[in-house]
Amino acid sequence: MPSYHLEIQAHRKSPVGIIRSSFRQDGKVKHSSHGRLTGLPIQKLKLLQAAFRGDVSTKDDPNALRILTSKEYGASYCILQLAKQIGLDTAIYSRKEPWVNDVLAMIAGRILYAGSKLALSNQWKNTALWELCGTEGSVDVDKRCYEPMDRLLKRQEAIQKALAAKHLGDGHLVLYDITSSYFEGAYEKSDLVDFGYNRDGKKGHEQIVIGLLCSKEGCPVGVEVFRGNTKDSSTVMGKIAELQKNYRLQKIIFAGDRGMVTAANSEKIQEVGGIATVSALTHPQIFKLIQRKLVEPELFDEKQIVEITDPDDLSLRYCLCRNPKTAQRETLTRERLIELTVTGLEKIAASPRKNSPEKIGERVGKVLANYQCAKFINWRIEEGHLKWSLNQDKIDAEKQLDGCYIVCARNIEVETMEKNEVVASYRKLELVENAFRNLKTGQLEMRPVYHQKDDRIRAHVFLCMLAYYVQWHMSQRLQPLFEKGGEGKKREWTFKNVIERLKSIRRQRVSMGGVDFDVLTSPESDQEEIMRLLEVKLK
Q1: Domain range for residue 171?
Q2: Angle, to 10 degrees, between the axis of helix 525-534 and the axis of helix 74-85?
Q3: HSE value, Cβ hemisphere, 13 Å, CA-based, for 451
Q4: Which tens digits make up the pLDDT trace of 215-264?
Q5: pTM confidence score
């Protein structure tokens, strides 16, 4: 543990006290300076010096050292400094205006204290965040949060242009995916919040749909909020237009998940020109290729990627892959669903009473709809009773394709991207999924959304994206720490743990001998390593 002392420099016109600490590192005694005391007479400085030595012995002594306040400092300082290093402050607005600092406070606050804007404004007693951003004392949530959010939303297009210019370029791979975020409560006046396909399995909840654009490394560059009933494929052409017109990228490789690059979208993309695509085929599309005799189940291999060019359209390249873990999971899932379907049908067939075809059909329909196994069942009604059987040929045919998937590349020459690179590019969509996890349930906790107005909802989502932008840069710099931290039970470092270690660096207001001054916690070796990787020095 470091020992603190006060060094008095009395040779100056006015004496100065320098708060220093001494500690041993690698067998050597080292010193650090933590602050200067000026404007005090030599007698008071000597009194403080004696207090540092421990000569002030009782807590009731008015000259004894007392800690008046203690606030989190290290994490807020590091995040704000990093945000400025990566140019986020100037991307938000080129001029130094108070609202920009308020936005930076909300971005850092989203990483540190995920929750409502009101809750963040009330953190001013616990953290130095707001003071570091220029706001002393109590924080007015309207002035420091809601009004800056409105200004931020007006700047969204310009900010995203700046981020795209920094992380994207002509010919680059661009990752795009969408997700949904559910709401609780009534949003009758909202044009965004609506019922739709919920990707979180939260039935009965209204939602919004969020589209996220990322660089090939997974760095977010743009986000858009859509109405809750928006379909994946309907957002694609708008994103391509945004990339070309707003970000001035005429040639890009657009990577989207299954169902985005539909046949209709593919034709529209061809008309636009300059756009190559990487996506995966749906199961019905794979079966069509099998029916055409273009693809055979035996070609799917878990070790080697097989590539086939479509003879009817030479711009299409199909890369055949197989994942054995996925195959096992799909097989077990199907077997369980068929088992549940059989149990339900046996119960209907075992009924001793004759029923009308309508009533039997209704009961059978519910069972098949619940377990999605209609294609594996042959059934009919005879004399008021259900007769059914399994279609084993279809079950066997489906099993052959378990774990199989096809990555489709259009308008990408082999010289530009060979088959392994095509598949790797598609797999990079996992980086967008990771972004969504962090935004929704990880460090940033975008939901619940406490805003009622659509523009505030949009601003909130954009603010969360910018917070993830900072988090992404932090994670990139901290990779050496994560890599040496071990795996499984031996894993020491996570992003959340890094934040907690930085939070423990506190700024304390100290009173001694009638003098009040600030002292920072001396960083421990692991905290110094974190700040070294972040390229931040405490002040």
Answers
A1: 156-323+403-475
A2: 20
A3: 22
A4: 999 999 999 999 999 999 999 999 999 999 999 998 999 999 987 888 88
A5: 0.84
